[in-house]
Fold these 4 entries.
Entry 1:
Amino acid sequence: MTTENLNEYLADDGVAPDRWASALHLFDNGPGVPHEESTAERWERARLLFDAKDYIGAARLLDAVVEEAPEQTGPRLLLARAYYHSAQLKRAEGELREIVERDPVEHYAHLMLGRTLQRQGRREEAEPWLRMAAAFAGDLPVDD
């Protein structure tokens, strides 16, 4: 690093994004005392991994977050997306079905479930989910 101003150092300049998130609390408990990561910290680190396109790493963390906070839709939806992007389509489908069962108006889950089914070659099964997502988005077909 050639600059004197540490604020000019970019976090993505050769350092994995999750290292920045985990490094923030290295010394909270004092030197030599291990820091136990909270659910919120795991959630934040998983989002950084997802943004860095490390979908498998994100899924590992998100699986723990979802186990610790199963009622939260956000982590479960990001877990489904991580599974989708890492081609773990059956797992993505399972998480998405759980989301729409718990929250039937979560329109993005309907869209993702339809896309996940399409990607598995189950186009006919995907259609109702995609129609429902379109209806939630206000993209209904116009009758002539």
Entry 2:
Amino acid sequence: MNSTPEQNGADHPADQQVVVSLGGGDAQDARTVFDVLAAAFDSDRRPGDLPDASGGARPTVWVITVDVSGPRPAATPARLSAPVTVDAQGGYRAVDRLRDHLTGVFAVSVVGTAAGDQEQEARLRLENR
């Protein structure tokens, strides 16, 4: 007998949380994307906890985890200095919610996806509208 409470699909963390990572690129563009996400969703970052470039020869990767179960009103379009590539990993519905929100802010194209049993990873390209 299993003593773990049963979870339906809508309550499963993978269907609510998305791990978003941005690699390379400009620190200000990463801040812009993080600001858009923080304005729309609860996240693992405190307000004002913005990404910084690590410096040195190694590449910088910025990561934020957002809870997409209760999005706030859509943000206004934001400006990027160059296109940004975002990797989003989470449940299928959660990644779709994230992409839908970003589409209201940026021009979004799906560059690729990797499908799992209950989660997916989507590579998105964000550009100015």
Entry 3:
Amino acid sequence: MTYPQDPNNPYGQQPQSGGYQQPGYGQQYPSGGFPQYPPQYPGGMQGPPPEGPGLAIGGLICSILGIFLCVLVTIAGVVMGHIALAKAKRGEAEGQGVALAAVIVGYVGIGLNVLAVILLFGFGFAHELFR
């Protein structure tokens, strides 16, 4: 038993079924003619996914705690915030806003710690002066 051959399908292939349809002649891609592929490194390997905002959150926590504990913890928060901010700007990590907050809060904390030390020494000196 032979089936009649379809003139539009000379090789007798079944039409594709399913949700994905390959673009045909004249069909436009969203990028204006080229399909979108994820960025790849040499050799066809994709790059690693971006890190989470862990470093930025750690920097923010250190910056906040450093206001109340000591200036060394605040400096650690500022350093971690700067590293996280640089990674976020390069696209290697997430949490650019949190990293920026860590840097700002850290510098405010350093300023408050320096002001507290100046005031403590000033009040101590004034107490000894007017004794």
Entry 4:
Amino acid sequence: MTEPIPPITLPRPENPQLEGEWLRERLLRWLDEEFIPEAVNQKIAQRAAQIFVRQRMEGENDLGSLVIAIVTEMQSYDFSNSFYGEFAIANAVSDLLLESLGIDKCCGQ
């Protein structure tokens, strides 16, 4: 039987606004590179970063909880002008954060 991957806890934020700006820039780059650059990508990246910053400022450091918050709150976003949806955005945020921590997104190590 395989062992579950333990939860991933982000370090306490020193500057949530700076983290949010980093995430917005990285997510926008990912969105533009994954399919095609679109104006809506900026709005999507901005919204995801806002959710992330608010969650971090409220004390959320668990990556899984952050991903669920992004999925939940992005459900109200109108993705009709985009190739993406809330799950793709939340997964991309998770991948970017894991990469920033030096954790292999494939296997959690």
